[in-house]
């Protein structure tokens, strides 16, 4: 109740301060006084003071679109000389962030509840010299709002005195979070201090993407001009530094991953080879197990460096290329033509001949064991010269 004659603005300010104080006390963590972080309005400053920010850059994850940092990369501070350490961090979602998470869920009956917008937890080494990939501290244990957070199972190792490491991947904290703009979330981390090695924690709001979405974005980015590849072909086939002159080069429009004709031929801008691979299949494989490694030369093939090749896209769509033929010949002038029909048929005949002559089936011979053995070179000999030995 407002006292008669009191200033209305002062009354509203006092009421707001009381609500903030009550919300902070209601969100007190389960670890005693460590869970008290004062008023909601002062919380970010207190978290910044408690968590020492680390000038570390984590590698981008293509299948997660970054929507903001809930906890900037901060170092895990070891206190004392004990081997096992503990640290606590808090963050609070804004109204918009809480709504984005709650309103973007996959709640089909055939699947568990999956959040498309996620609160993502990441760990990495404390190293400011280069971008860092995900890596868990040893003997890591994480609790969110007093509940144990599931972590990837450690990979067994046969090395003596070596602790098994967990697969390097981010952790989805969303199911354990309070999706409210008035209640802070508490993250408690326990780990084993590693002599001479520091660790960093970071919490982000991200959106989970699919391989189809990444493919659509890759195609929308545009194709590398066919003239670029044409000039690359000329350079490779007219290189005067080569001891052996090469007038043409045979390549395939079949993906080295799936052995089928490519639909979206691509390769990284960081690779100098002509052979492409199918973007769709490459993204699907990295969605299941992210390696981001070029299937042609094993060099890094980061998503941001991928580009659809306009030259090979034109080849695939050309009427001159038969549907059953996946190999083409590249010429010194940058042009191409299908493998000559006579040559391709001759190669197929030779392959079929080799397959037929490589093995001889003896399963129908009486007294013989079933199976196949390598065929000997065909030598004309009379039947009377074959000696049979009967083994009882």
N-to-C series of helices and strands: HHEEHEEEEEEEEHEHEEEHEHEEHEE
Which structural class should the secondary elements be placed in?
alpha+beta
User: What's the alpha carbon Rg, rounded to whole Å?
Assistant: 32 Å
Helix fraction by DSSP (H/I, runs of at least 4): 10-25%
Mean pLDDT: 79
Count of helix runs: 8
Numbering strands along the chain, what is their spatial order in the largest sheet? 1-10-5-8
Tally of extended strands? 19
Largest sheet: 4 strands, antiparallel
**Which stretches of 5+ consecutive residues score pLDDT under 50?**
1-49, 357-384
Alpha-carbon distance between the two ends: 113 Å
What is the approximate shape? elongated
- Proportion of β residues? 15-25%
Polypeptide structure, described:
This protein has helices spanning 8-26, 43-50, 95-103, 211-220, 226-237, 279-288, 310-317, 341-358, and strands spanning 64-75, 84-91, 105-106, 114-115, 117-125, 141-144, 147-148, 171-172, 185-192, 199-208, 223-224, 248-252, 265-268, 277-278, 306-309, 327-331, 336-338, 359-361, 372-374. It has 392 residues and is α+β, with helices and mostly antiparallel strands. Helix 4 packs antiparallel against helix 6 (279-288) and helix 5 (226-237) packs across helix 7. The longest helix has 19 residues, at 8-26. The chain is elongated, with a radius of gyration of 32 Å. The termini are far apart.
């Amino acid at each position: 109740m407002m006292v008669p004659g009191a200033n209305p603005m002062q009354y509203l300010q006092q009421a707001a301060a009381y609500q903030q104080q009550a919300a902070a006390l209601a969100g007190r963590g389960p670890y005693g006084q460590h869970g008290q972080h004062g008023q909601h309005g002062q919380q970010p400053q207190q978290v910044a003071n408690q968590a020492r920010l680390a000038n570390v850059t984590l590698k981008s994850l293509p299948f997660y679109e970054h929507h903001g940092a809930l906890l900037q990369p901060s170092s895990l501070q070891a206190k004392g000389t004990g081997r096992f350490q503990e640290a606590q961090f808090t963050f609070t979602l804004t109204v918009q962030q809480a709504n984005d998470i709650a309103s973007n869920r996959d709640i089909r009956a055939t699947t568990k509840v999956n959040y498309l917008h996620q609160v993502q937890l990441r760990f990495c080494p404390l190293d400011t010299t280069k971008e860092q990939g995900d890596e868990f501290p040893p003997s890591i244990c994480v609790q969110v709002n007093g509940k144990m957070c599931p972590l990837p199972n450690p990979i067994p190792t046969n090395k003596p005195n070596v602790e098994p490491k967990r697969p390097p991947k981010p952790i989805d904290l969303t199911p354990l979070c309070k999706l409210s703009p008035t209640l802070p979330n508490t993250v408690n981390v326990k780990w084993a201090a590693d002599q001479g090695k520091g660790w960093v924690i970071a919490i982000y709001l991200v959106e989970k993407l699919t391989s189809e979405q990444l493919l659509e974005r890759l195609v929308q980015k545009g194709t590398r001009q066919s003239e670029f590849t044409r000039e690359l072909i000329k350079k490779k086939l007219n290189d005067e530094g080569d001891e052996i002159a090469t007038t043409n080069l045979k390549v395939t429009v079949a993906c080295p991953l799936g052995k089928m004709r490519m639909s979206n031929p691509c390769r990284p801008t960081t690779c100098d080879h002509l052979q492409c691979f199918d973007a769709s299949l490459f993204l699907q494989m990295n969605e299941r197990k992210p390696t981001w490694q070029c299937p042609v030369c094993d060099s890094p093939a980061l998503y941001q460096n991928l580009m659809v090749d306009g030259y090979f896209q034109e080849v695939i769509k050309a009427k001159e290329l038969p549907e059953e033929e996946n190999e083409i010949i590249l010429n010194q002038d940058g042009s191409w033509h299908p493998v000559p029909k006579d040559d391709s048929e001759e190669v197929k005949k030779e392959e079929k001949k080799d397959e037929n002559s490589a093995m001889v089936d003896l399963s129908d011979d009486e007294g013989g064991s079933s199976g196949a053995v390598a065929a000997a070179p065909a030598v004309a000999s009379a039947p009377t010269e074959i000696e049979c030995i009967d083994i009882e």
